[in-house]
Every structure is written in C-alpha cells, then in structure tokens.
C-alpha cells in the first residue's frame, strides 16, 4: 500500500487559510459567515495536521522555501512530527475555545472572529518557520490581534490589564529582535538549519542565542519573569484566556525546545542556571495557587508551574525527557482548556469567578463539579487523567538522570515534581472547598447588554449552568481521560516528536538539501 505523504509546497496553506479567512471577515460582516469560519478553519487545520502526522511516518522532515530563493533568502516552512503534533493540539484547543465564544455570544463582538483567525495565522507561522527572524515576525502577528482581543472581551479590569500585557510583550519583542540581530551578527545567518550546533561551537553565538531564549522565557512565564501572566490572563474572558493559555505560552515553549535542540546539540553552557529557574518555577506556581482569590487567577498560577514542568524535559535533555516534556505540554494544553472553559461556563451563568461569590455548586451543578474535579485531578497528576502520565514521564526521566550520574539534577527534579504536586493539591483543595461546599447561592450578576454585568440581584429558582456551555470544557476533559486510557497509543507520537527534535541532520538536509 502506497504511503500518504503531503506535498511540502502545501505547508504555507496552514498560514494562508486562516489569513484569508481573517481578511474576508474584516470586509464581510455576516454573523453566520463569522461563526462558520471561526469553527471551520480550526477543523481544516486539525485535518491538515493529522495528514502531516501520517506523512511523517515515512518522511521525518518536510520543508518548503517560499519563492524558491537561495536558502539564506527564502522563507522556510519546516515540519517534523513535533510541529505536526503542535498544529493538531493548538487546532483542537482553538476549536473548543471558538465553540465556547459562539455559545456565550462573545463571537458577536466586533472583529472577534477575524482576530481569532489572525491569531491562528501567527501561531501556525511560528510553529512552521525555520528561521529566527520569521519567528519574531510570526510572534508579532500573534500579538497584534491579542491586544485587540483583550480590549474587546472580559471585565473592565481588561483596560488596566491590557496595558500590562502590551508593555510586557512590547519589551519582550524588542529583546527578541535584539537577540535575533545578535545571532545574525555572530553567525551570519538566522536560518535554524544553518545554525545547527552553532551554540556549541561559538561562545559568542551561544550568548546571542541565550538572549533569544531569555525573550521566549519571559513570554512563556518562567520565574522570575512570570508575575505578569497570572495578573494579565484572568483579566480577559474565559474563552480568550483558554485561547491564550493554549497558544501564547505554548508557542514560546515550542520555540525554546526547537532552538535548543538544533543549536546546542552538545548541551547549553547555561544549563545549570536554567535548571535552577525551572525548579523554582515548578514550586512557585504550585504554592502560589493557594493565595488566589479568583478561580482563574489560580489557573494562572497553575500555568506557571506547568511551564516549569514542560521545561524540565528540556533541562534534562534526553530522548525520554524530551518525550515526557512534550507529553506534559499536550496534557497541559488539554487540561487548562477544559478547566478554563468549565470555569467560564460558571462565570457566564452566575456572573462571578471569585471564590467568595461561589459556593454550594456541588449540589446545584453536580456535573459541572465532576468535570471541575477531574480537571483538578489532572493538574495534580492523579488518575484517571492525562496528568498522571505526564508526571510519571518526568519522574522517569529524572530517575534516568540519577542512574546516569547526574545525581543532583535528577534528585532536584524528582523532589520538585513531588513537592509541587503536594503544593498544587493544597491550593486546588482550597479552590474546591470554596466553590463546591457551603450554603446555597442566593444572588448573582446576570448579563447586561449595556455594562456587561448587571448589579447583584436575587438568583431565580432553578438557575444552573446550561449543558451547552458545559460542552466544550467537558469535551476537552474527556480528551484528557482518553489520553489516560489510551496512553499506549499516544506515547509513540510523543516518542516520534522527541526523535524528530534530536534528528538535527535530517532537519538540516530537508531545509538546505545538503
């Protein structure tokens, strides 16, 4: 039977399709067309990503240089199993968030559908690019619609939070561009394939690459440059926060994995510093969860500890560790989307996400609390969810370090993962106790067409979270449980992604032809 292989010349379609959709919706404003494209584009991208994954069974790397120029001038689009996996995961999470935006009516806000599609354009471009300067360009394409999405959705806090988001990302983008300039100045190219092993061979290029990685670390939310994230993300709506959680930080983490794997094949000279920061990130995010007064702020802190767990795979840097880090990344995207969309359904129904305003939901909305409980299980690494295998994979990779002689790093990683699990349990237990138990809700703040939320008023008898709003979060949670049950089918894809990351010669040959 003939193997299915995608033509590499089709790779730019992952960018062109959402970009054309955004352009069309900016001109033609029809509610039906907006919602149709908002849902159809992620479906099409997800189908394309599945085709890419199938293609990589026989072709480890697919590359296409737009315009047919020489390698140093062309715009390279490159895909390997890790890229295809990220395209699929981000498409699924974008679809879930888009369905939620349609159900809550946020998609009717001016320009929200084209802005989401433009954000998708930037994400796909950043995942597929094989060039550091183009990575900067695609990240900016991601950020521009994000500024607008913060401004048009969420509470009034968004206006102050928007300034924080813009300021942090403008400064970080400037740092990223400076780093890319340093790389070009020291290595004479910003093409990743041509930078293969450049960080290991030249201290000056290694320093320039460190500036690029620092900028990406800020965008990802690595301690000590993390505090903006749990303040900024909860300021927007739950649907947009689910989008940002799945796309912004994860693209930065993907880029860090790719750059380190290609340019530092002999190890990073600053690996010890990064290891310390990663361990601190795991612990800070986990224990800060207990201090949150809003449910989505607690989720923001869980995003921080998740970033630490994912980067632990990069710090340990073995095939097992990279595979575990990628598995944790996929699990975290799925779980955070499930939790944020479920919490968003509660906020949309009762008008608040503050712990002091929510109580007694275990009696009023038992199925909502089942989804929420399983999502919290997943964050803590408990069965029957994907979180268990994510943490088991990282512990296995850490134990491998101990066996191979990296005793301090291995034991530090094991202790950090275990202690952070306890810290997360304490914080999430406080969240559960605040929302599930206590007296019945008597008041709420219903939707108001003029100000978003009306003043507090008596809660009508029989008010519960509608099933249709619970659907997107429940579907993502079901995906997490499916990953737990079908881990035997999931792991080969993670292993293939890790193998692709480490197979730098294949990456270079596909891009340069050499």
From TrEMBL:
Q: How does it sit in the membrane?
A: Multi-pass membrane protein
**Would the keyword Heme turn up in this protein's UniProt record?**
no
Please report the name of this protein according to its UniProt entry.
Multicomponent Na+:H+ antiporter subunit D
Q: Name the protein family.
A: Belongs to the CPA3 antiporters (TC 2.A.63) subunit D family.
Keywords for this entry? Cell membrane, Membrane, Transmembrane, Transmembrane helix
Q: Where does the NADH:quinone oxidoreductase/Mrp antiporter transmembrane domain start and stop, copy by copy?
A: 130-400
Q: Give coiled-coil spans as residue ranges.
A: none
Stored InterPro entries: CPA3_Na-H_Antiporter_D (IPR050586), NADH_UbQ_OxRdtase (IPR003918), ND/Mrp_TM (IPR001750)
Q: Which Pfam families match?
A: Proton_antipo_M (PF00361)
Q: Where does the protein end up?
A: Cell membrane; Membrane
Transmembrane domains' residue ranges: 35-54, 84-104, 111-129, 135-152, 164-187, 207-229, 241-264, 270-291, 303-322, 328-346, 367-389, 409-428, 469-491
């Amino acid at each position: 039977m003939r193997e299915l292989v995608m033509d590499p010349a089709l790779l730019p379609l992952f960018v062109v399709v959402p970009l054309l959709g955004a352009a069309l919706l900016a001109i033609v404003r029809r509610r039906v067309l907006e919602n149709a494209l908002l849902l159809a584009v992620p479906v099409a991208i997800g189908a394309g990503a599945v085709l890419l994954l199938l293609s990589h069974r026989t072709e480890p790397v697919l590359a296409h240089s737009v315009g047919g120029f020489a390698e140093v001038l062309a715009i390279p689009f490159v895909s390997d199993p890790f890229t295809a996996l990220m395209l699929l995961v981000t498409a699924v999470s974008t679809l879930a968030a888009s369905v939620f935006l349609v159900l809550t009516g946020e998609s009717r806000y001016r320009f929200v559908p084209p802005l989401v599609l433009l954000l998708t354009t930037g994400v796909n471009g950043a995942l597929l690019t094989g060039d550091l300067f183009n990575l900067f360009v695609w990240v900016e394409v991601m950020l521009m619609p994000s500024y607008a999405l913060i401004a048009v959705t969420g509470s009034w806090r968004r206006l102050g939070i928007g300034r924080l988001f813009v300021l942090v990302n403008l400064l970080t983008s400037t740092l990223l561009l400076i780093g890319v300039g340093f790389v070009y100045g020291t290595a004479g190219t910003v093409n990743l394939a041509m930078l293969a092993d450049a960080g290991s061979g030249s201290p000056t290029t290694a320093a320039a690459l460190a500036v690029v990685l620092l900028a990406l670390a800020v965008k990802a939310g690595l301690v000590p440059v993390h505090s903006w994230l749990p303040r900024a993300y909860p300021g927007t709506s739950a649907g947009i926060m689910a989008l940002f959680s799945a796309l912004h930080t994860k693209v930065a983490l993907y880029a860090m994995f790719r750059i380190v794997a290609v340019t530092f094949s002999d190890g990073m000279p600053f690996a010890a510093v990064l290891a310390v920061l990663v361990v601190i990130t795991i612990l800070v995010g986990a224990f800060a969860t207990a201090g949150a007064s809003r449910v989505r702020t607690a989720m923001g802190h869980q995003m921080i500890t998740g970033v630490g767990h994912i980067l632990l795979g990069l710090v340990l840097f073995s095939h097992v560790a990279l595979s575990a880090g990628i598995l944790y990344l996929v699990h975290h995207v799925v779980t955070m989307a499930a939790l944020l969309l479920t919490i968003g359904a509660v906020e949309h129904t009762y008008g608040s996400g503050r712990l002091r305003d929510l109580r007694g939901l275990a009696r009023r909305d038992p199925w909502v609390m089942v989804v929420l409980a399983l999502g919290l299980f997943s964050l803590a690494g408990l069965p029957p969810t994907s979180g268990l295998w994510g943490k088991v994979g990282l512990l296995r990779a850490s134990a491998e370090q101990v066996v191979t002689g990296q005793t301090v790093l291995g034991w530090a990683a094991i202790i950090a993962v275990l202690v952070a699990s306890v810290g997360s349990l304490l914080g999430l237990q406080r969240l559960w106790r605040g929302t599930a138990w206590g007296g019945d809700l008597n008041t709420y703040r219903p939707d108001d067409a003029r100000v978003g939320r009306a003043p507090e008023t008596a809660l009508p008898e029989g008010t519960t979270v509608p099933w249709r709003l619970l659907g997107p979060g429940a579907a993502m949670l079901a995906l997490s449980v499916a990953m737990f049950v079908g881990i035997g089918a999931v792991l080969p894809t993670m292993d293939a992604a890790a193998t692709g990351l480490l197979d730098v010669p294949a990456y270079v040959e596909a891009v340069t032809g050499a």
